[in-house]
Amino acid sequence: MSDRTDEMNNDSDHEHFREVLERSLDNPMNRRNVIRGGVGLAALGSLPMMGVAQADDGGDRPRGSRLGFEAVDKSLTDEVLLPEGYSFTVLHATGDRLTPAIPEYSNTGAETDDWSQRVGDHHDGMDIFYINRFGRFTDHETDQAVLVVNHESSADAHFFHPNGQTSNGVSGKKFTQFGDWDLGTRPEMEALKEINHHGVSIVELARVRNGKDDAHERDERRSFLLGKRRAPAGWAYKINSVYNRRVTGQSLMRIGGPAKHLADIRQFMVTQFDPTGATSRGTLNNCGHGKTPWGTYLACEENWAFYFNMPAGSKPVDAKTVASRARYGVARAPLSATATAGISQGWHTVTAADPADQSRFDRWNIAATGATAADDYRNEPNTFGYVVEIDPLRNTTPVKRVALGRFAHEAAVFGIPKPGRPLAVYMGCDSRNEYIYKFVSQARWNPADEGRGIAVGDKYLNEGALYVAKFNDDGTGQWIELTIENPLIAGYATYAFANQADVLVNARHAATAVGATRMDRPEWGAVNPRNGEVYFTLTNNSSALRNVDTADGANPRAYRDADGRGGSGNPNGHIIRFREEGRDDARATSFQWDVFLFGSEADAALNINLSGLTDQNDFSSPDGLWFSKTTGICWIQTDDGAYTDVSNCMLLAAIPGRVGDGQEITVSNSLNGVIGTQTTFIGAALGEARLRRFLVAPKGSEVTGLTESADGKALFVNIQHPGENTPALGRGTGFSFESEWPGNAGYGVVGRPRSATIVITRDDGGVIGL
Ligand code: FEO
Ligand code: CA
Ligand code: CA
Q1: Is residue 364 pLDDT above 60, yes or no?
Q2: Atom from ligand 1 closest to the CA of residue 288
């Protein structure tokens, strides 16, 4: 998702780094006199800025000590570039049908169906779910599987209508979520398509081996005949599978949460649609994902705040609701009780042809139009911002897991499950200066729960504790529980919490109340399957929020890009990682951290290019992050706007060491005429042998979402929003596309760009990356 979605709504005035540093240096117990790697503090002044320590990997590195492919060069071309010896096929793209009952996708905006049986847009997080002979989930490879894909956003919805989006009867616009259009009236079918291309798609995979199909030969041949296209070698999806289905912005959802607080939680969800607050409609902006140990899918709701509108002159909502909305960016411009002019896609302006359908559109108007919350949709924003659990193999109602907190959820990744121990779920809130969270289940993991579906989710994801992370400058960190029992939360002046349900629904406020560390936009998390260490991408930050004075140990750089795009703050981002303390990892309340990698342009100064990146592996704005259980490779995907004068977004492979394998360093910061230093901890340099660029994506796209077949021989990667920068239409003048991928790569009708899932294989059939 583009940078504009990360506007910060966290104006808390936490202590700045300097105060922390001064306090910590005052305390001799906090002085780190001996630095990991054996270099004394006194020697720091003479250390080179780049980490040079050799990895002490403790035996948890992948089975290869170096990557087995030649790095791909940076590129600005409109294609997917891979190392020699690798190739890809497109599995599915925006608009592909999930049933033979509707026409193939035209790629001209001509569809007359409501998109609820087509692959959604903006492919993002995804995962594979294998099916055993009893029709249940298994983590082991079988000959039957489904692929679940998140569809993040509607920023390119103008491609789905013949001449762009229409307002007040005039087409040819590109409406953003951020309000560059008049709030006229929208046509019903356009709004339906836009609502329905959000959500999640589930398709059954089909394998085609060497021209000879596997057990699904007949189905598959029929599918492709119906689709009037040839089955590619490798992987495809079945068009007529009973597993194919969509979860959309209109699907029925159940509200789940801790039993003790569920009645209170439901009070926040009361709408005209369900005055009991037990259910809600739809999931939006599903960004990163999670896969539970029992075999369900977690779709995380990220930029859900931008779809609502309060028409000017609306009856005001109460002050507390305004304070809640302000913290989440709902009703952001202006921050008032009465108007949110300029935000949303205008779905609330639709007049439905059938009055029975009117509430589908009314629900985006969040004014207090009725006598009580049960008479309108003032609470509709409270029904979004969650981790949504979906069973890919059963058509059960998805559940919003309120216990995991409400924020701009990027992804939800499990620590290594251990029988008889609680489970930990790590989550980032993707906005500038937001936080990293952890949920710890009350129930202890029982491997017999594998394959038992969403009922098991009720066991592990309703009862538990929610924590937020505080990163100390001495390389340690704490998890602080978000509970109404905490006086900092109970007595928080900015927002008066009513109860624990309020703490969960307004988790961002609670996290600020306890003094969590403001991070440089947490995106995906990932857990190293070899040692349980947790990695988070921190994609970037702007100089308004990250500068010499606000730098801290975990977000240590403040600088200006010297050429090209010229961003400032932390324009290239970094990847932090931490190791939980103690034996009972999930419930640990402290951890040790270091910075795995700093994004940078290869030719940047040494105080910026701290990880010693070269032309083979330099990158900017890390976003997607995923570990292969088979190879142990850490895959890094970028969603960048800072280095895109030199290269389109990319995918890199890394062979990581472990937390503490590097050293403490002092970073020299210089920005806007202010200079200063900041200590931090950096992992051992990887070098070109252990960090290489594997893929460069088409123009205007980001690379996001990644998974792998169980044998490590097929890598599934999502290419999101190619051609994102295609300008708004001149009215009636047609499009001039920034990208024509994947049509220009031989997939579907050439013309408008489409998000897609690609499957990468090695020409010699080997595992990917090593
Ligand atoms: Fe959806 Fe944070 O990228
Ligand atoms: Ca530059
Ligand atoms: Ca992302």
Answers
A1: yes
A2: 1
pTM reported for the whole predicted model:
0.91
Distance 522 CA to ligand 3 centre (A): 9
Which atom, in ligand 1's list, is nearest to the CA of 524? 2
Residue 125: pLDDT band (50, 70, 90) is: very high
* Residue with CA closest to ligand 1 atom 1: 287
Q: Which residues of 360-398 are buried (b: 16+ CB within 10 A; e: fewer)?
A: bbbbbbbbbbeeebeebbbbbbbbbbbbbbbbbbeeeeb
Is the CB–ligand 1 distance for residue 6 below 6 Å? no
The ligand whose atoms approach the alpha carbon of 1 most closely is 1
> Could you tell me if the CB of 152 is within 6 A of ligand 1?
yes
Q: Which helix (H) or strand (E) holds 92?
A: strand 86-93
**748 torsion bin: left (phi>0), alpha (psi -120 to 50), beta (else):** left
- Average pLDDT of the residues in 363-378: 95
CA of 317 from ligand 3 middle (Å) equals 32
Cα(50)–Cα(6) distance, integer angstroms: 30
Q: What is the pLDDT of residue 346?
A: 86
Mean pLDDT of the chain: 87
Distance from residue 715's CA to the centre of ligand 1 (Å): 21
Q: Is 734 helix (H, G, I), strand (E, B) or coil?
A: coil
Q: Are 451 and 435 in contact (CB under 8 A)?
A: no
Q: For the segment 53-76, what is each residue's pLDDT rounded down to a tens digit? A: 333 444 455 555 799 999 999 999
Identify the pLDDT of residue 64.
Answer: 59
Which residues, 6 or more positions from 373, have their beta carbon under 8 angstroms from its beta carbon? Answer: 270, 271, 379
Ligand 1 atom closest to 539 (CA):
2
Residue 94 CA, distance from chain mean position = 18
12-16, 18-22, 480-484, 589-593: range with lowest mean pLDDT: 18-22
- Closest residue by Cα to residue 83 from 745, 704, 695: 695
DSSP 582: S
- Longest CA–CA span in the chain (Å) reads 76
Residue 410 Cβ inside 6 Å of ligand 1? The answer reads yes
Protein residue whose Cα sits closest to atom 3 of ligand 1 = 1
For the Cβ of 520 lying below 6 angstroms from any atom of ligand 1, the answer is no
- In this predicted structure, the answer to whether residue 31 has a pLDDT above a threshold of 50 is no
Instruction: Report pLDDT for 157.
Output: 84
Rg for the chain, CA atoms, rounded: 25
